[in-house]
Amino acid sequence: MAYKAFDLTGKVALITGGNGGIGLGMAKAIAEAGGDVCIWGTNADKNAAAVDELKTFGTKVGSLLCDVSDQQAVKDSFAKTLEDFGRVDGCFANAGVSSKGKPFLSITDDEWQRIISINLDGAFYTMQEAARHMVERAENGDPGGRLVGTASLAAVSGAARNEHYAATKGGLISMIRALSVELASKGITANAILPGWIETAMTEPSFNWDKFADNVKPRIPARRWGQPEDFGGIAVYIMSGASSYHTGDTFLIDGGYFLF
What we know:
Number of strands: 7
Number of helices: 8
Strand order of the largest sheet: 3-2-1-4-5-6-7
Radius of gyration: 18 Å
CATH superfamily: NAD(P)-binding Rossmann-like Domain
CATH topology: Rossmann fold
Number of domains: 1
Distance between the termini: 37 Å
Shape: globular
């Protein structure tokens, strides 16, 4: 018999950037565990394809077009999510963009603002709407909720030539930790996930560069690139009742890369 706490029947997860990569990997596991899932993305075709995959698990799924860097779009999309699903038990602020590595002195203001607006502003807008909903529920006798941010090892290591990306992910971890303290009395947890080198569309250019792959892959103790499905277990755990006393953490999902 499966551990009952991991049964997510009746729970609803919102996953930004959930139409591919790590976000879709988490969405699939949550749906397989019985949870309903709403994904936000900026590509209608990818949203539709992801929904088709998620429907195979038999739970309620849906998608919305949303640019998380637009605060009003986030407000409208969250309201629509509540209209369609009734509640949000877990909010995964996963949407993000990377950058082409370039010397710090060459990073332009436009590049800085682009990364900040999606990776950090977008997470702030999304989690603020989710927290408002979760706090209101708690005050009406229905405490609980999960806030989750997808950060990066770049936040805690020296990510040369990616200072703007690293800054957004470091800021996200700090925000998550502050939320974990502020909202604990409402039964709301807040945690960050730090992926290592994961095989997604975002990382494909790097992994196809032989010099990069030949230097980095041998440094991963697991001796393989991570896959989106490697994030399914942590997503189910965080969404479940088993994690109700676990907050303010940073989960390293990196095959041992950081320690090595």
